[in-house]
Amino acid sequence: MKYDICVIGLGYIGLPTASVFATKGLKVLGVDVRPDVVATINSGGLHFHEPDLDILVKAAVQSGNLRAASTPASASTFIIAVPTPFTKDSNGAKIPDLSYVEQAARAVAPHVVAGSLIILESTSPVGTTEKVRDWVHEELARSGRVGSRLMVNRSQVADAHEPGTNNPEQTEAERRFPLLFAHCPERVLPGNMLKELVANDRIAGGLTPEAGRAAKELYQRFCTGEIFLTDARTAELAKLTENSFRDVNIAFANELSLICDKLGIDVWELIRLSNRHPRVKILQPGPGVGGHCIAVDPWFIVHSAPDVSPLIRTAREVNDGKPHHIVARVRKAAGKMKKPMIACLGLAFKADIDDLRESPAMEIAVALAKAGIGEVLAVEPHVKGLPDSLAKLPNARFCDAEEAVRCADIVVLLVNHRQFAGLDRALLRDKLVIDTRGVWR
Length: 441
Fold this sequence. Notes:
Blueprint: E1 3-8, H1 14-23, E2 28-31, H2 35-42, H3 53-62, E3 66-69, E4 75-80, E5 86-88, E6 94-96, H4 99-108, E7 117-120, H5 128-143, H6 172-176, E8 180-183, H7 193-199, E9 202-206, H8 209-219, E10 227-231, H9 232-263, H10 267-274, H11 297-304, H12 310-334, E11 341-345, H13 360-371, E12 375-379, H14 388-391, E13 396-398, H15 401-407, E14 410-413, H16 418-421, E15 432-435
Parallel strand pairs: 1-2, 1-4, 2-3, 4-7, 7-8, 9-10, 11-12, 11-14, 12-13, 14-15
Antiparallel strand pairs: 5-6, 8-9
């Protein structure tokens, strides 16, 4: 069977995208390397929490338009939506890890045909869409489906292509086996994903104008927002820029909180009053920045242009350093107690979701449990038990919010889940409270 779309990666972006296309009548194959995820989706279930997504997935599967598998199959369009984390080199510098993208690109290569559209949705460093093209072509050459002399030195012909694209002169093999490559980053907020997936504006950045137009036409099947055409490199940097902008502004708020701690000033009151200025809108501080976008994407820019990105680097360092500040505050408070119980309220990276990726709350809870200064009572209403990094530590146990607060000597509010705002404030009497979100001011 030939599918209309094959989506590689059925996580927080891939699964909603595959499901929406399927409910629009397209035949969609979703691919994931995790057998439990494949089985869950084929049964109409969901392996993570996102409001209303379970209904969409079930409808898509029951319609026969969505099926999950562990390997790709023939399709007109391939969408790569796999993780793009970072790793560290021998000097400790953060560098992009494109291994998942490379594996996905090489996996789809046996299934492409002339004219196939390959879209990279994964948030990626500048130039990754070109790498996807090269990996696919390498696999095609290796299999003998096209000639082995695929690539030219594109840096030497960079001025020979049409303005606004990343596609220099094509090789003869590329002309005989044309493929379309584009980068179409998502702009969605966990917890409101389905609405934003449909309504938000998007960017379609092609390695050729034809690829950009083909990607735009595809997403117009469900997007009500405007879709802007550009080249792939600009599309890649646009997504990184959006998240870096937010990171820099959050870093300003977090740095203010450090200053206020030092000077004995209420940072929440300070920001409230400062924001009365008609042209000032300071964000709210917190225990750090998490998630797979804001906490990661700025490092991709820094890695690409380290000599001219000191502001973006410093903002990342400020936000990465905030969890250490919170841990130090708890340790100082615990120093006057004998083996205190420490309630850590929230483990997700933001409010009212179950996503723990790059979560500063998780980092703080793990650091406190490892420190051995007391027992950590971990509270996360959106997961069913302790995450592995906490489960293996003897000083941590899973609790509900009320039990944790009742038992704790120190209460650390790390995530502003709605449930925590509704806790009986009387439970906080005689507790040492560290509210990193300003919920209980």
